[in-house]
Amino acid sequence: MTLTLKAASKAFAAVILAPVAIAGFALFLAVWFVMTITFVGPLVQYCCNQRDRKLLDRSRLCERVPDLQFIRIPHGNNCAGFDLAVRFTRSTTSTTLPPVCIPNGLGASMTTISQLHEELVKRGHTVLSYDRLGVGLSDRNTTGVSPTADDVVKDMEFVLSSVLPPTTKWLVVGPSMGSIVGQYFVATYPNRVVAFLNMDGFPYPFCRRRAKFVLAGLIYKAYAAIIWTGVMRPFISMGIQSWRSRLQSAAFSIDVVRAETNQANFFRNLAHEMITMIDLADKVNAAWGSQSCLELSPADLHTLAHTKPSAVGDVRDDGEWVPIDDSAITDQLIPNYGTIEPAETAQAIASLLARQPQSQLAKTWQTLHVDVMSGRNFDYAGASMFIDDEMKDWYAAEHTIHALLAARGCRTVFPTKAHSDMFAMVQCIADHVDKLSGAIDV
């Protein structure tokens, strides 16, 4: 009944808001047309771009951020001959904790996760964050070709080996798309990772939704095509400003983040990253083999999707973790909240592994320490385009198997947090990294 009322209220809101949305879009087109034909918009964009170039000047950035460097990728990768921006900060207090690598989410740069980078450094971790080709401070992708999944992990391996010996084992923090990058890195370089934090990672089965992601890529290309008119800048700048508390850090001001985002390259590269993400999803799906969520029987998928997490809670504005009585919020988590005990699911996973050939990735995963942070609030703009009930089940099933298949695993659910909210929980994420690191004997 509750779900029916929610659906009805959403439908009613859509009917009421549709005329407002149409009127708003018409107003946007009118403003765009006037600003373009009068050259006011292009002139403003040109002047702002001159300031942006100064903010993004590499020599100035390196003076301000001493641990920022640019590493040239060698011949053999799609981005051979291009420089990737790398921020590598050595711990000055600990030599026993594994170094942390953060492969970012879709289109996200080191500037957007700089707060997390700096918090982990304060806690004694050695931390590396970097920008993939075309992203953030790295060179633009001028090849016209989206990097493949193999390109991405080769680049990641080269960057890691450039700052620490190639025998070093890393703790990988995978936010959103970064979780798929991390999984494929584990599959390709199984001896390079000792622990994995899945930070509300998108499930790799969304390769089944490739048409929608390709469509999103085309929309981003359209944004890139009109950004020279200046009409996008006020909206982008207001959006960035509203996230000031999440994005500004000691190393990178909000102006630097705004300058990155107001470039045509930002949107053009988002389209490339969509294609790269689909390839990563395909490769990770293949790497999991019989243990892939797409290969599970309906019964096994149901069991994994409805398994109780290790903990349910929320993070207050002051960063403090607060447990939640899961019985009070079950309605928010249906259809992918658990009524099945983890011990029962562990038996189901053992049975699954016994009756099917184990993939190499599944074998490697059983040697890792893994934590999973799952945001379960899908009531936000854009979610309905990609995340239906089947996708929610894949989300929950993948996050469950990540935790229960590991040598030591834990899954924490945040029922009130949307996907974008998860990355603002810097203290909580750092707590999870601390917990993982503390359990590892380096």
From TrEMBL:
Q: From what superkingdom does this record's organism come?
A: Eukaryota
Q: Which residues cross the membrane?
A: 12-35
List the Pfam families hit by this protein, alphabetically: Hydrolase_4
Instruction: Reply yes or no: does the keyword DNA damage apply.
Output: no
Domain (Serine aminopeptidase S33): residue spans on this chain: 100-195
Give a yes or no for keyword Transmembrane helix in this entry.
yes
Keyword vocabulary terms for this entry: Membrane, Transmembrane, Transmembrane helix
Show the InterPro entries listed in the entry.
Answer: AB_hydrolase_fold, Hydrolase_4
Q: What is this protein called?
A: Serine aminopeptidase S33 domain-containing protein
In which organism is this protein found? Aphanomyces invadans
